[in-house]
């Protein structure tokens, strides 16, 4: 009998080993770990919503909660740490799945690695699997599921967390298949929150990481899952995308982690390339915010119509501000960058919001996803069209990631962020090395050392 989709994925996950990872994959894994941990440690102070979410995920255990140092059950620690990474709206991104992987997979793998005293090699193999599995499932269906209103991170990220969790537990092939099948029962999360500026998006990421841990532990305990969970007549693909794709995957590692990009600024992924494009043009052409009379941003139709992208402020919630392309572009025009403070509720001077209303968002069917062009009309009569680079321009090298995270680390709540960042950098490099693969994870990296107030 031919293997089903989850069985094919399970065979890949169960047999993956750290020693087979290529050096480019290891290098990008270092970058992803450094980036995600850095933005997690730089999350804003917990507000009432996050305090409530954390209070509901507080079972005691052996996995550490970053910044507070609390020790909780792996699933609850994963929930909290995933929400922490996402709290500033600055994630790693995989374009083909229209979502984020690291914020979901890293907390799940780390929490279980601490709980079972895994070795560093198992952690690296688990994370590499996670970064492959989610895009493999998402690529043939992400655009269709997005059109139905489902968020890519909460729909496909669950599989990344489950694959990583299953691998770090060293589940066998049948158990890995069960974990992936069980994970499909946790999929969901719509994008209506972006349209209304409500905070469910934070919960979505936490649940995806939590669910991956739960799915792997249930599979380890003997729970079975549907063999045709993905492609069955009542399975995942028909429910969320409307049709079952014909997989062409050969069962080998795809090194999808190399296609992951980083957000240089807080805020929505869709707006990152437009902000970079505008700033590059501004510096190249020598104009300032006061020189701009009008501005038109063109995006792929799926992104021009993405909930919240074309909204104008003022905003009464961070969720609204981090989605708005006009707001992010106007902030960049005036300040040459964006910071976490720009997205606080009620932020932005009235004049900034008024100026942002001269920025419009249009759809262009000729544009590929995550590409853009910007037409800029200047008061002196000049008209400039700025064309974006390919999205791979945000696929940072490790050296560029170090520089970016050094800047982010200035927002850590530690007395000496420079030394703390240098310590994290050393630990991440060590964790992803061949030499450390047989050492215990807890001996190589200790995120509890970065704990401060929540």
UniProtKB/TrEMBL annotation:
Domain MmgE/PrpD C-terminal: 265-368
GO function terms (MF aspect): lyase activity
Residue ranges of every copy of the MmgE/PrpD N-terminal domain listed in the record: 7-243
Pfam families, A to Z: MmgE_PrpD_C, MmgE_PrpD_N
Domain of life: Bacteria
Family of this protein: Belongs to the PrpD family.
Protein name as catalogued: 2-methylcitrate dehydratase
Taxonomic placement: Bacteria, Pseudomonadati, Pseudomonadota, Betaproteobacteria, Burkholderiales
């Amino acid at each position: 009998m031919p293997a089903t989709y989850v069985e094919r994925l399970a065979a890949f996950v169960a047999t993956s080993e750290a020693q087979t990872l290529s050096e480019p994959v290891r290098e990008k894994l270092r970058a992803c770990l450094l980036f995600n941990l850095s933005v997690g440690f730089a999350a804003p102070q917990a507000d009432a919503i996050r305090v409530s979410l954390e209070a509901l995920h507080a079972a005691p255990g052996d996995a550490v909660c970053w910044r507070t140092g609390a020790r909780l059950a792996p699933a609850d620690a994963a929930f909290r740490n995933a929400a922490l990474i996402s709290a500033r709206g600055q994630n790693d991104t995989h374009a083909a799945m229209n979502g984020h992987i690291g914020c979901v997979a890293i907390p799940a793998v780390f929490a279980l690695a601490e709980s079972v005293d895994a070795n560093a090699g198992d952690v690296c193999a688990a994370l590499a699997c996670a970064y492959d599995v989610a895009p493999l499932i998402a690529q043939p269906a992400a655009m269709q599921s997005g059109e139905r209103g489902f968020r890519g991170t909460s729909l496909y990220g669950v599989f990344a967390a489950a694959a990583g969790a299953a691998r770090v537990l060293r589940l066998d092939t049948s158990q890995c298949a069960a974990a992936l099948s069980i994970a499909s029962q946790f999929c969901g999360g719509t994008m209506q929150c972006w349209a209304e500026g409500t905070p469910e998006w934070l919960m979505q990421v936490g649940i995806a990481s939590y669910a991956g841990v739960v799915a792997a532990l249930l599979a380890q305990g003997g729970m079975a899952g549907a063999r045709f969970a993905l492609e069955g007549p009542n399975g995942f693909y028909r429910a969320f995308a409307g049709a079952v794709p014909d997989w062409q995957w050969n069962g080998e590692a795809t090194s999808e982690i190399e296609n992951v990009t980083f957000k240089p600024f807080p805020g929505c992924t869709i707006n990152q390339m437009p902000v970079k494009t505008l700033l590059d043009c501004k510096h190249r052409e020598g104009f300032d915010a006061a020189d701009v009379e009008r501005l038109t941003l063109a995006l792929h139709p799926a992104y021009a119509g993405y909930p919240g992208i074309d909204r104008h402020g003022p905003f009464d919630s961070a969720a609204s501000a981090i989605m708005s392309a006009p707001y992010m572009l106007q902030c960049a025009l005036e300040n040459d960058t964006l910071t976490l403070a720009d997205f606080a509720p009620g932020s932005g001077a009235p004049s900034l919001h008024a100026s942002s209303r001269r920025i419009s968002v249009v759809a262009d069917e000729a544009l590929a996803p995550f590409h853009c062009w910007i037409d800029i009309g200047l008061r002196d009569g000049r008209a400039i069209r700025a064309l974006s680079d390919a999205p791979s321009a945000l696929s940072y090298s490790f050296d560029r990631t170090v520089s970016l995270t050094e800047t982010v680390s200035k927002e850590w709540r530690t007395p000496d962020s420079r030394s703390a960042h240098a310590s994290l950098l050393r630990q991440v490099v060590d964790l992803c090395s061949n030499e450390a693969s047989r050492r215990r994870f807890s001996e190589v990296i200790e995120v509890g050392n970065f704990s401060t107030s929540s």
